[in-house]
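hey so i finally got around to running the thing on that chain from the lab meeting. sorry it took forever, my laptop kept dying and i had to restart like 3 times. anyway pasting the input first so we r on the same page abt which one it is
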Amino acid sequence: MAFDYSDLQDYGGVMTGSEIGTIRQPEVVEGDYTDLDYGVVVPEGLDDVTVSDVESFNSENNDAFVRLDQYVLDLDDDVFYVDDHNHALAGWLAASNENVLEGDTVLLHLDDHYDGEMPEPFFPPESVGEAEQLIGDMIQINEFIYPAEQWGLVDETVNWGVENKNQQLLHRDFGESSLILDLDLDVFNGVESPGPIYRMIGGLMDEADFTTVATSPGYILQEEALTHLENIMEKR
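ok and heres what got predicted. didnt touch it at all, straight out
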């Protein structure tokens, strides 16, 4: 599959209702976002992970919330920052084809949700265009791990936070396996003393071969999510 880091530079679709390649996504937002420069900044880092001043509108529950200005790929640390979590899958595809991930790969999924549901039947993508069409179109925010396993990107998935936020569960030797750290910042919902978890996740980021971070608009306030992210980075 011809999909690598350079493809992520033009990877869009972070705002539901915007263009993904030439594929129009379902309209669930108010306003015109076609003028937004909503791609990926390469090779910038955390300083470019900022919240937009444009509100998205979810017609299902009548909630308005902001999203990230753009998705950011930090080439120095191999970290891909997104808001809608299913777009982490695009980063995993790119990392695999850049040979960042080699051999058996463990996905360490830190999230307040399972995200392992099975999407509707689809054919595996053969190009970046097809991948972009699938992600956010047929592969939703709760069902992107299953395709990663089916495509051979992930050999084992370890879930943390969905049912148990016991810090000891994250102390594990991953051996020779490549490690994807997949962090959804809504995992901090309900956590009263996050300091030890900041340190633990910071250490895991240093250990991981590739990291994806999702800010999950609609599930946690974006300003709060970025505060958690900044605190994690300070503990690395």
